[in-house]
Amino acid sequence: MGQPLNTAALRHTAVLDRLDAATSDLDPPFAALDLTALRYNADDLVRRASGTPVRVASKSVRCRTVLEEVLGSDLTARGGFRGIMSYSLREALWLVECGARDILLGYPTVDRVALAELATDPVAIGR
Fold first, then answer.
1. Domain map (residue ranges) of the chain
2. pLDDT (tens digit, 9 = 90+) per residue, 95-109?
3. What is the distance of C-alpha 115 from the center of its chain?
4. How much is the pTM?
5. Which of 18, 42, 98, 119 is the residue whose CA sits 20 to 30 A from 35?
6. How far apart are CA 103 and CA 95, in angstroms?
7. Residue 44 and residue 49: Cα distance in Å, rounded?
């Protein structure tokens, strides 16, 4: 006979069941997100950072709506989070177009087209 499920496991199962039901008519690929869990995890990360601002790595968060949830609609800072570390220069330029003001390019680039675009965009250069 197996061990009884703990309360957290039951909640997790309930969330998965709810997400399965909500997306049953959708064709993959798609993503579903538990906003309550995202908010809890974000708050916990800020708490553990003990006052050090947390920069979001866009490589780990491939959804603008999630970035807005964590950083605010201007994609810059909210509640202990500050700025984005972008995956690529092209992504950084797109984030500038979306209004982000604090962007760290996480990796070197040899993308000549993106470098040329950056060189001629005074807004992007300043962010």
1. 7-24+33-125
2. 999 999 999 999 999
3. 24
4. 0.79
5. 98
6. 8
7. 9
